[in-house]
Amino acid sequence: MEENERIIEQNEKEEEEEEEVLVQQQQEVWSWGAGTEGQLGTGKLQDEHNPQLLNSLSSFAGPIPFLSCGGAHVIALTPGGRVLTWGRGTSGQLGHGEMVNVLQPKPVESLEGFVITHVSAGWNHSGFVSDKGYLFTCGDGSFGQLGHGDCTSRFSPQKVSYFELRHVTQIACGMRHSVVLVKDHLGQQVHGFGFGKRGQLGISNERLQSVSLPQTSLGLNDVKIVSVYANGDHSAALCAEGQLYTWGRGFGGASDVHIPQCVTTCLSFSTAALGWNHALLLTGDGEAFMLGDYGHGVLSDPQMTISRKKESDKDAVWRIPGLNGLKVRQIAAGAEHSAVVTGKSSSRILFENDGSVLTWGWGEHGQLGLGDTADQTGPHVVSFDKLIAPQHLVGQVYCGSGFTYAIRTPGTNSNV
Amino acid sequence: MSYDDVEIEDMEWNEELQAFTYPCPCGDLFQITREELRLGEEIARCPSCSLYITVIYNTEDFADSNRKNKNIEPPKRQPVAVA
């Protein structure tokens, strides 16, 4: 009996694995929004107001487990730890050894000998972390954001020698700064380098311009950090207990924060996403919150103003209106737009509305994927061309400054 | 409505565009030329979208900048002139 159960379990496990392989083989990557630098990977230099299916990624081995979208470029990881980049390359941020835009995914050859496990695309620079804990950076270095001790730009990824003897696990690239998470036998630290005027390096109470060598961010010594984030002039770190610390430019008109500060102790978060003036926060049970300007999403229509809810604490987080009780499994933030995937991440059972992408915010370049250039103050469902793959569900969504990517896999909820 | 207020020292001089620039959330750059600054213009526009920023600077710093050398670096990169 027990043996039988074990066999059944084994079979189920194998079936699940097979299913997973199948799912991965049929992965679809879609993009929309600002596209004039080639960041949509469509091979065209134009904005797209509706999701476009990319065929250019299918020629590379296996499904894409992770994407990072920057100012106008994209970095993709392959299952084997290879790196593909495309989009704006005029500062060297694509790492191909030259300063040109690339309209379709192209492997970064100089990283071929390494297994890359984490990547981040900033405004015009890029960071890559290997399984051995090495950090590589390339792109615009004008503010020291590459961490090499100078303000020189690099067109190929170069190892950051400051971390030579340490084990880097994550990098997050913002507009002109970088945040790095180090974890090894010497302990855990968050480091910052690049532009620091708004406090985004978290290294000093004093107002400073920029630093070109990594320095330890303060105030995070007693908490176990699991993730770091950066975008615009913002930085953030999430600790294992679910508290989010932020530093840099203040949200919602609040003053700048120079030393990492806990957002709220009332809620426990599982992930965060930073924009240029807002942040999205997700709790473990799928509740999405927003931090920052209540008027988010009315940029291109100056006449339109949202009646601002009076908050005593300007930095207070508030529940995203318009989700109508829908659970959220993933969040992403562009400079001035937001995207979420519905469904509960911990649940294997999917419901009718799960696996949809909802977007809102600034829409002037079609980055909301709703077929027009209108702004939206609340979440709206993105429609994908049903003729191409009616059963597919969105697994992940990623936002660049003015564009959006969604990865879809075959649906499993059709018979639920 | 201005998207943001940006100090001139935080803008970058772009040789190719012959303008001071600052990142625009659309992915392009807000731009303002030296000549515009000389004339007292304080709005830097993005060529790709409707957004613009307000540039904070001292008009006197640019009042006499109509010099032959148009390639000079932004003020922050220049050595301090001793009177």
Automatic annotation (TrEMBL), chain A:
Pfam (any one): WD40_RLD
Parts forming coiled coils: 1-28
Entries under InterPro entries matching the protein: RCC1-like_dom, RCC1/BLIP-II, Reg_chr_condens, Ub_ligase/GEF_domain
This protein's record includes keyword Coiled coil: yes
Family matches, as PROSITE patterns: RCC1_2, RCC1_3
Record keywords, A-Z: Coiled coil, Repeat
Residue ranges constituting the RCC1-like domain according to the UniProt record: 28-405
RCC repeat ranges, renumbered to this chain: 27-80, 81-132, 133-184, 188-241, 242-285, 355-410
Record-given protein name: RCC1-like domain-containing protein
Species per Swiss-Prot/TrEMBL record: Coffea canephora
TrEMBL record, chain B:
GO biological process, one term: protein histidyl modification to diphthamide
Gene Ontology CC annotation, any one: cytosol
SUPFAM superfamilies: CSL zinc finger (SSF144217)
Keywords of the record: Iron, Metal-binding
PROSITE patterns named among the record's database cross-references: DPH_MB
Catalytic activity: 2 [3Fe-4S](0)-[protein] + 2 Fe(2+)-[Dph3] + NADH = 2 [4Fe-4S](1+)-[protein] + 2 [Dph3] + NAD(+) + H(+); [3Fe-4S](1+)-[protein] + Fe(2+)-[Dph3] = [3Fe-4S](0)-[protein] + Fe(3+)-[Dph3]
Pathway(s) this gene product operates in, as recorded in its UniProt entry: Protein modification; peptidyl-diphthamide biosynthesis
Pfam family membership, one: Zn_ribbon_CSL
Entry similarity comment: Belongs to the DPH3 family.
Name of protein: Diphthamide biosynthesis protein 3
